[in-house]
């Protein structure tokens, strides 16, 4: 009898001990917010500034950049830099810094921190990802100087009218903490996992490798102390696991793919966040192959695929058809060819071009999500209808890149490219613009008329004139079907219904963008 | 015995070296390297930037030179740094190794404790309703992939019933305790054990059916022994030997991990680490993981051979 009751007691103790911990338990003040901030585009946990591959939504909670996107990525907004200006030819840029900002350890932030951080980010020995994301060649940066405690001047060898757009990738690190390190060992520092110091809204609290990173509010945050008691980034290997955790109430937010976001939205129990991915999905044709040198073949491919129907049905209305490489309407010309579905015209163009229907091509891609695989299957079927024989070939990213960047061994690739008003996704046309086995442009052919537009846009400092040039580039791409422009997807995030003033936007690369984390809270249920 | 042990250890050394050379060569033959992994196809990167990263990781050196450097560092106890996040390989592996061992061992024990008795039970009731029912369930257990059972288990027990957490090794919003750790371990280990249960049950059932028809069992029954005594003294001890071999073959899985289960349950084990290493062309990590697995398998083989001598007095190693 005693044994029986002891057993029962043990079961009761176990059950109490195992009661699932919901995220609302610690709610006091703003509560604890747990999110899967590193799921989705960006992937692996982001821990080290300047080695981030994307996912800057999380890093910006600890470290602040000089500048960030605004809420909807339509303009820049000040962060640690409050103002910026350039000389006439945009070779000398001056950044005024925010005064009164304190590091998490109480030290004062100043211009030396910015100089240190930028020099580190551009140091070839540190081999950071900053030069790639900022499109800054370290050799083109002649100097970075602190003019006074709150003014930094950057001098460039070449005009760069859009430098501030790339300063969103310029994290600012504490010079007083890191000035003694060997910069070649920057990526191996324990400091990021044990005692990182930033100027962001939250401070390091607890890091459990492979599981989570917990932060506490920075009472000295320059934009106001955060309301949350704790902010936790929980790591998941994939989206499905994160969505299950969201549905079980263990986390409050995760990135969601289109079909999942729509399903959760229909339940009425979640908040849905969405916006343009800023990534255009398109076919890039290897113009070394004679089959694609005739623009009528490329145009026929666009006419043959019913892009509108694919976006509405296969992609469930979560993508928008684009006329050129730019996904934003502001960069499109007033008039362009929409290449509306017309298989008869496609066949006629192929016939005029003398297209050999016995050819077969593989469409190489690194995309492995159901979203893109379904789209590829539909594209394959539409092309087959007009006599173009293609087979999708999915590869992992290293395999794909190892072929793609040689310019050899592939004919068509289905890929994506991130575009915003500041960057220049045109290097595939330019000799030396991308690593290839020869000096030819990666796509295999140059377009002098287009190159003139690109060169002009690159140094144009007037924003209206610049936008006009981007529209001209779009028009040229559209007319000549330089690539097979498909669509730009909408990206989604899903949050619990009790999140208060939480904001998420699918800014390309995860921003950073203005999301006011100091206002976030979790309402007790 | 000691001579035999020393001889086996000495023979294992060239085997180990051979394994590392093969793994390194295969890694070299795989298309792409870690720089290709780092290039986001959606971001443009110049050839100079790619070369800077290759130089930083030592990929500008020839493969033999890199292998020699790896061996030299290994001799000094240094497995190098993971390419993708800069963490020491030894630290990453030891952390993941512990997590995998905990999960896989628990699942294996559940598999043995449940699967073997069920095999005995069905083996003694051939063609009964129980036999058909449990055999059907075991086929389901063997053929259902872990990512299906894992997701189903999470949907039922984590989302609908809220009995268990939806993955992870510990709660993230409070300090872990022994109870919370057990709580997080139960569901993934049960899911993982389904396959073990089904497998061990099938083997045990088959083995029981073989032994039940043996002459010595018939003799025992003819001598008038109680059925219980025949079963537990004569049938089960003989029937279990092949099952022990199957269990032994499962032991290397303890360190390899279980990719799908670890992924679905966000369990940071060796399976997902290995997959990440392959996808990221993370050579130091790949070499480190393979070294650990090879060491484990070689050690397990030696221990198995030695255990034969303990179990069977006729076997002597000189």
Question: How would you summarize the topology of this molecule?
Answer:
The complex is a heterodimer of chains A (525) and B (318).
Chain A: H1 2-17, E1 32-36, H2 56-59, E2 67-69, E3 76-78, E4 81-86, E5 92-97, H3 111-122, H4 130-134, E6 141-148, E7 151-156, H5 163-166, H6 175-178, H7 191-194, E8 202-208, E9 212-217, E10 230-234, H8 239-247, E11 253-256, H9 258-267, E12 270-285, H10 295-304, H11 307-314, E13 319-321, H12 343-352, E14 360-365, H13 370-385, E15 389-394, H14 397-404, E16 412-418, H15 448-459, H16 463-480, E17 484-496, E18 499-500, E19 521-522
Parallel strand pairs in A: 1-10, 1-11, 14-15, 14-16
Antiparallel strand pairs in A: 2-3, 4-5, 5-7, 6-7, 8-9, 9-10, 11-17, 12-16, 12-17, 13-17, 18-19
Chain B: H1 2-29, H2 34-38, H3 47-56, H4 63-75, H5 89-123, H6 129-143, H7 146-160, H8 178-212, H9 215-222, H10 227-250, H11 253-256, H12 259-264, H13 270-279, H14 283-311
Mean pLDDT of chain A: 89
CATH superfamily of the largest domain in chain B: MetI-like
* Main sheet properties of chain A: 11 strands, mixed
Number of strands of chain B: 0
The span between the termini of chain B is: 6 Å
Runs of chain B in which pLDDT lies below 50 for 5 or more consecutive residues are none
Strand content of chain B: under 5%
| Rg over alpha carbons of chain B | 24 Å
Helix coverage percent of residues of chain A?
Answer: 25-40%
**Through-space gap between termini of chain A:** 42 Å
Number of helices of chain B: 14
**Proportion of strand residues of chain A:** 15-25%
**H-E order of chain B:** HHHHHHHHHHHHHH
Task: Spell out the key features of this protein.
heterodimer; A: 525 residues; alpha+beta; eleven-stranded mixed β-sheet; four-stranded antiparallel β-sheet; 16 helices; 29% helix; globular; B: 318 residues; mainly alpha; MetI-like fold; 2 domains; 0% strand
